């Protein structure tokens, strides 16, 4: 059985403790085992990080950027292998897996500009002979705890910014698809980073708690489900750390009566079902405005959804692949049962789906639910599967209210030809990322990513200047240089606050 090991101080480290099985979701077979680490393993990683971080922090930013440039080139050269490895453990199709790597790579590209973005502020003449300047200094050792659904992109969101800013970084990826994060760390070393600058420790709650409690880890970035995000946030902050913790989502797509419905259906097919719906920026709720819009949309959605091709993750013709684990497949099907029990109409039913020749794979067929209402549990909670729910809104006001009142506030989209309605919606909706005729509005790497409400705890976003803020602290220097003329006029006096 293939073993996935920790990556500590530039090399593999197996450990002797517990291990966790890594599935191939397309075949339903266990393809590897990953080591589950503990506090002692984390101590080893922290010790290695402490050895190299001070030197890295004072390495000039242009030299740090050179490592990022080489890393970028190595990722490009290894794109196909990374995507295939990712696809085989996660289940998303290979093209989608390339997108996962690509969106992370874009943050690395942004990090290549670190000398420019790290420049501080300077005021000449804040007082007589007094200048003031600020600098951004790294926190020291940062850690990232990441979810299964973007095993390349989310680690790169975090360590790209953290390391470029002068920190060492310890990554604790999801135990469900751990191989790509290790491969990224190997490539980073190959790019010229010192051993111990980027390390990977695997594990579950035991390792997460060790990270949260470790006195030498100064900043923690978490992405995952909301209850755990909240837990990580509270425990980390209680321990005096800087923490940002992104949580779950239930993104809505508002469809105005004037929208181009063919375009909307096409967008929804990708945004609701791509990656089997296992995206925090998926669009699992569609809100047509007015009964007529709802009926017309439903009529077009049914054949589009029935026509989706579900396949193994390396099938180039598949629209989407299996979900990540058998437990997750069972949970999604239970949510469809729950929705039906609550009175939703199951228009297209993906339960019990079986792929010929791959009967043990974790496949869920595409599902469409209509007449879903805000009172239903299946609407309030995240399903994270290939399930699209139609919630009919009477008017624009109700369409603004639905995503605004939802517990999650990650992303939202509006489809319309009316610029005024779009502008009004974007300004008023209580959600962090908004798309106007863009179904998955993940901001580009030089903006930043972050939801609101229970989709994010903490007050800085991922990547861009927000990411830089998170991974650095500001130091401000106020300086006065007397001319030393010797006549006593510049003699130091005890300063007063005046
Ligand atoms: P998860 O919360 O189960 O796991 C996330 C991380 O937490 C993993 O590294 C896991 O090992 C660790 N973990 C699991 N149980 C833990 C516990 N009891 N205590 C401490 N740590 C624990 O999430 P997941 O299923 O891997 O990922 C899917 C979730 O992530 C969805 O809710 C999705 O919406 C969310 N997500 C959010 C964003 C965002 O930016 N808001 C992005 C991607 C995914």
TrEMBL record:
Keyword Hydrolase: no
Domain Aldehyde dehydrogenase as annotated: residue spans: 18-477
MF terms (GO), sorted A to Z: methylmalonate-semialdehyde dehydrogenase (acylating, NAD) activity
EC number: 1.2.1.27
GO biological process: L-valine catabolic process; thymine catabolic process
Superkingdom to which the source organism belongs: Bacteria
Keywords carried by this UniProt record: NAD, Oxidoreductase
CDD domains according to UniProt: ALDH_F6_MMSDH
InterPro entries xrefs: Ald_DH/histidinol_DH, Ald_DH_C, Ald_DH_N, Aldehyde_DH_dom, MeMal-semiAld_DH
Any Pfam family hit: Aldedh
Gene3D superfamilies to which the protein is assigned, alphabetical: Aldehyde Dehydrogenase, Chain A, domain 1, Aldehyde Dehydrogenase, Chain A, domain 2
NCBIfam families: MMSDH
The protein, known as: methylmalonate-semialdehyde dehydrogenase (CoA acylating)
Species this protein is from: Pelagerythrobacter marensis
